[in-house]
Write a structure and sequence with these properties.
This protein is of the alpha/beta class. It has a single domain (about 5-155), classed as 3-Layer(aba) Sandwich (Rossmann fold), CATH 3.40.50.620. Helix content is about 55%, strand content about 20%. The protein has a 5-stranded parallel β-sheet with strand order 3-2-1-4-5, with helices on both faces. Helix 1 links the parallel strand 1 and strand 2 (about 35-45). The protein is globular, with a radius of gyration of 16 Å. It starts with 6 loop residues before the first strand and ends with a helix.
Length: about 160
């Protein structure tokens, strides 16, 4: 029988939940001997909406995008460091676009066997429910999806890795 999980991808968005998901993905990759990928998506659709709703001027959009690119690099470097500490190689990538679309495309292009997402935050309104990109990614991914919950337990598992 072939191994059911050979490639794991974790989606990182800078939230605490996504860092917890990254820690769990590292535990799984080490335990299962799977390849690990980390993806951060700069949500350009949300940026365009901010300009269209006149919250940002177009000139401010580019500055904000540069800030988001910097955030993406910092969080991906943090995940690289978490993985390095546990001896797990990770291929980290940054993409731009609609989050759920980019996640779905990367899952397909890499042949990912398991997508790991952080716990989905509480939905406060109907609009939040419609635009929660993590939830949309969970619904549209063409592979099994694991939602990492239980921050303390995951931290203990991560810390116990040799």
């Amino acid at each position: 029988m072939t191994r059911p999980i050979r490639k794991i991808m974790v989606y990182v968005d800078g939230s605490e939940q996504s860092i917890t998901a990254a820690q769990y993905a590292i535990v799984l990759a080490k335990t299962l001997g799977a390849d690990l990928y980390a993806l951060y998506v700069v949500d350009t659709r949300a940026l365009a909406e901010l300009v269209n709703s006149r919250i940002f001027l177009e000139s401010e959009q580019e500055e904000y995008r540069r800030d988001l690119d910097g955030d993406a690099s910092r969080y991906l470097n943090h995940v690289r460091e978490l993985a390095r500490r546990k001896g797990v190689p990770v291929a980290a990538e940054k993409a731009s676009g609609a989050v759920h679309v980019e996640i779905k495309a990367k899952v397909a292009s890499l042949g990912v066997d398991l997508l790991v997402l952080g716990e989905i935050s509480q939905i406060r309104s109907r609009r939040d429910e419609l635009y929660n990109e993590t939830e949309r990614a969970m619904r549209t991914a063409q592979c099994p999806v694991l939602v990492a919950k239980g921050e303390d337990k995951i931290w203990d598992l991560y810390e116990s890795l040799e």
